[in-house]
């Protein structure tokens, strides 16, 4: 697996224009993730992405979680994202924009147009995509032609790959932990297309 991860890492780092960008978070190999959870962007800036990446084992979830907790930040969307991910039996947490910023209005047009999401999607081909927040929902509606993306999954296609698409336009942090976990389990149970 290390040669696959090394090649993936090399291609990813070539596409990244900011070493502090956070293209994704997962536990180990991104190839083990059959689902994506997609938001706008990371709200908390941590270390360089290379500090969390290993060509042998993938993303270092333990280091990420420890660094995140050391900042003493409120969990915000982290709690429901992690609960949905547990329900899915693991997911790649990513964003339309990889640049961390405290507020989405700090993102530029270049941040949106330079998204790493098409690369990640084409490479990893998720079975399920859950998007949260209005702008990421609009992004997926634009690239898939789907309309009225909601918590009810619908079949979608992007870059020649079919998948299930669902989303929540409201604040994700208002979703209860148990409710988020159960929702992740429901998404995991979707049949292949």
Structure description:
The radius of gyration is 15 Å and the shape is globular. By secondary structure, the chain is an alpha/beta fold. A hairpin with a 2-residue loop joins β7 (154-158) and β8. The chain has helices spanning 2-15, 61-70, 78-87, 109-113, 117-124, 134-144, 177-188, and strands at residues 24-25, 35-39, 53-54, 58-59, 92-95, 128-132, 154-158, 161-168. The protein is built from seven helices and eight strands. The strands form two sheets. The chain has a six-stranded mixed β-sheet, with helices on both faces.
What is the topological layout?
Elements: H1 2-15, E1 24-25, E2 35-39, E3 53-54, E4 58-59, H2 61-70, H3 78-87, E5 92-95, H4 109-113, H5 117-124, E6 128-132, H6 134-144, E7 154-158, E8 161-168, H7 177-188
Helix pairs in contact: 3-7
Largest sheet: 6 strands, mixed
Helix and strand succession? HEEEEHHEHHEHEEH
Report the CATH C-level class: Alpha Beta
Any idea what the radius of gyration is? Answer: 15 Å
Give the CATH architecture: 3-Layer(aba) Sandwich
Count the strands? 8
Structural class: alpha/beta
Overall shape = globular
Distance between the termini: 27 Å
Task: Quote the beta fraction.
Answer: 15-25%
Helix content: 25-40%
Mean pLDDT comes to 91
Separate helix tally: 7
CATH topology (fold) name: Uracil-DNA Glycosylase, subunit E
Stretches where pLDDT is under 50 for at least 5 consecutive residues are: none
Strand order of the largest sheet: 1-5-2-6-8-7
Tally the structural domains. Answer: 1
């Amino acid at each position: 697996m290390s040669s696959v991860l090394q090649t993936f890492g090399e291609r990813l780092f070539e596409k990244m224009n900011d070493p502090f960008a956070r293209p994704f978070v997962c536990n180990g190999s991104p190839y083990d993730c059959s689902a994506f959870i997609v938001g706008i962007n990371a709200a908390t800036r941590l270390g360089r992405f290379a500090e969390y990446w290993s060509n042998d084992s993938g993303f270092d979830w333990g280091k990420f979680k420890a660094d995140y907790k050391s900042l003493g930040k409120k969990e915000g969307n982290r709690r429901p994202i992690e609960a949905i991910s547990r329900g899915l039996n693991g997911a790649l947490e990513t964003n339309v924009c990889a640049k961390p910023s405290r507020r989405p209005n700090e993102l530029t047009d270049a941040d949106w147009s330079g998204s790493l999401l098409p690369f990640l999607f084409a490479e990893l081909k998720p079975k399920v995509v859950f998007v949260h927040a209005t702008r990421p929902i609009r992004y997926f509606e634009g690239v898939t032609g789907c309309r009225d993306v909601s918590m009810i999954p619908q079949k979608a296609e992007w870059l020649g790959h079919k998948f299930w698409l669902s989303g929540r336009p409201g604040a994700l942090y208002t979703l209860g932990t148990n409710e988020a976990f159960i929702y992740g389990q429901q998404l995991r149970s979707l049949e292949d297309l």
